[in-house]
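Internal tracking record. Fields below are filled automatically when a chain is submitted to the structure queue. Please do not edit lines marked as system-generated. If the sequence contains nonstandard residues, flag them in the REMARKS field before resubmitting.
Queue: standard
Priority: normal
Entity type: single polypeptide chain
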Amino acid sequence: MSVALRLAPVFLGALARRRMTTLLSCAAIALGVALGMGVQVIHEAALAEFGRGLRSLAGAADLQVVGPRDGFDEALYGVLAARPEVAAANPLVEVDVRPAGRDETLAVLGVDVFAAAEVAPALMPQADGGAGRLGVLAEDAVFLSAAAAEAWGAGATLTVQAGAATLSLRVAGSVPGVGAGRRLAVMDIAAAQRLFGRLGRLSRIGLRLAEGVSPAQAQRALAPLLPAGVILEVPAAEETRSASLSRSYRVNLALLAAIALLTGGFLVFSAQALSVVRRRREFAFLRALGLSRRSLMAWLVGEGAIIGGVGGVFGVALGLGLAWMAVQALGGDLGAGYFQGVAPRLIVDPLTCAGYAALGVAAGALGAWWPAREAARVAPAQALKAAADEALPGGSGRPWAALTLWCLAAAACLLPPIGALPIGGYGAVAGILAGAILFLPTIARVLSRCLPRPRSVAGRLAVARLVAVPGHVVVAAAGVLTSVALAAAMAIMVTSFRESVDAWLTQLLPADIYVRAGRAGAAGVLDEALQARLAALKGVADVRFTRHEQLRLDGHGAPVALIARPVSADGAGLPRVGGPRVPSGAPGLWISEAMADLYGWQPGMTVTLPLAGRAVTLPVAGVWRDYARQTGSVLLDLEAYQRFTGDRRVHDAALTLAPGASAPDVARAVAALAPEGSLEVSRPGEIRAITLGIFDRTFAVTYLLEAVAVLIGLAGVAASFAALAAARRREFGMLRHLGVSRREIAAMLAREGALAAGVGVLGGLLAGGAIALVLIEVVNRQSFHWSMDLHVPWGSLAVFALTLVALAALAAVAAGRQAMRREAVWAVREEG
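SYSTEM-GENERATED OUTPUT FOLLOWS
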């Protein structure tokens, strides 16, 4: 047996002896792995369930015809079904309704059972009591999927709110072919058209092509038959779009989890660096016994890999638990709204689990690599004579390497997105963090020169140590810098986003009362009669209506939102970021920032919109901020929209009250115009509160990541000072012989902890500010296509920094108490 293998108990025993630092390192890596694992598992489960639902919808269709939200003329069904390229066609009507007393929406699908049997058999309903296939033709019959029945009960009657109407539907059976996590109701297509105001309209048509006809051939032959705004696409296109939309959100969360894992890696670095210093004589004797440099380095890296492996395994288990709890609390999209109506069932993928456990191993091994390299390079004779912390790595710093990394990070910010992901922005974040770590000793030296010279002996010793032993600063402050940088960057970015959204809402909601037909996304319109009654209400000085629609501009991008509301030619009252560029009085089109990024539209250009089945050419007046629609939106004056389409129906109304009118009285009068619960009446403050509540829920995971990162940083300070204090027992003994009391040594340790943490906090705040700019100007703009104004929470960051420094000082004192308990004479003799 080789020397390296016979010495295995020595290295494994070292992990057992430093139980606290080993446990902290494992816990840090476990948390980083758990957060990344949880986000990955949730997203994959939600996307898989969403994909299964779409495949159920498409069935055996090779192509599907889709159009705007309000649908398209059903005459197109007969035209396409008669084409020789089409073997079978399946018409569908889709409507979102709200079950009575609930805020969630239920998707109702109107199907032709005869056509669905050929194209999409999974949508075939199964009637209770053996009524057979024809049982679905009853006008009041509805059939629920298993998830819908579980969510809203499997009673005999389902009462739903569809716009301004309340309907009682008879639950006549189930839809066994729909995926277990898809909330869906099926009914006869004719009944759905009549009950939900969709007479003569279809939402989509599934096409099964004739034998020998490829989708590309069929698209070329059938596309000229489609009206403007109606497109042909393969069924997988919608699933791909949803995955692309949610990918940016998931990748951003995964990046934050990776930074938490990186912080855990720095904790392993700190623990291993201090362990190497304390065990330098042990390594010298092992080298004398024949252990090679390569074997010593391999064993030390192996120690880190073992820590990472244990943390990775526990992290995988914790991640699965977090995923289950997050799905219960926030849903399959973590509150972001990408997979509404989907109740995913989590599936444990062994390859995913193994991959995240391997990330833990990699984090531990990489964290241990540099200390292992330094230990292997030291000669045995030098190791026997080295001072207690002389060999701490990283003391010299590499300012030029740091500056090089920062220059590369700045260059990476200029890169365009790759695959719709801000890869350059992510690289810039990594470069800023790595450069800040390399610059730590330089920050320590500058800070030491700026500090006033303390009068006390303990204070002078603490400052002298900051200058003389910069390796100590790197070890103790690396984890603090990383965690503070993450927390500060996210605090600045989230505050900027939240303040910008709040200002955006204030600008867009100038009226006193807002009225919507239906609630929580349920279908519904305000017809002309109801519009007139709203305008005639006592106490109402002005009413402005809004129409919402979805447009299909091409067969590749997601639907674009069309907002028709009164707007002046110069865009007064809009949160503008560009324009206007059209003559006053012209019906210009205002586009969101996402439209400018995704479609390349700019003010002054002339573009074509599909309105009411025909192409309308309009000039782009300017650009406005729209935080509600990631896929892009266009805003057109309501009068121009009604002139182009002839459709005078609207969805929302904004009421401005007359002087002296009572808002509660007017709100009650509005509610009395329609059946109870069919109109949603809100005040601007309520809308802002609900929107900001959704915002906070969406960022709940990032708040958790910030807290985890800070706890890891504090744990790193405590572990570092515990190991350093144990290695400095002889130093403490000498100070005691010279008349320094235990209280003064404790004060010295407190100052050292505060100074080391202060260096990390200062570097972290500077790095965090730079990362926040990258997140705001690069990552968010390339991921979600919106800009925001910079808002720095100075007060919160100051309190956070001072609290962290104070906690680090307390942690240093608590960690050094054990070393100060030894009598001075024994401490001096201990290493004599």
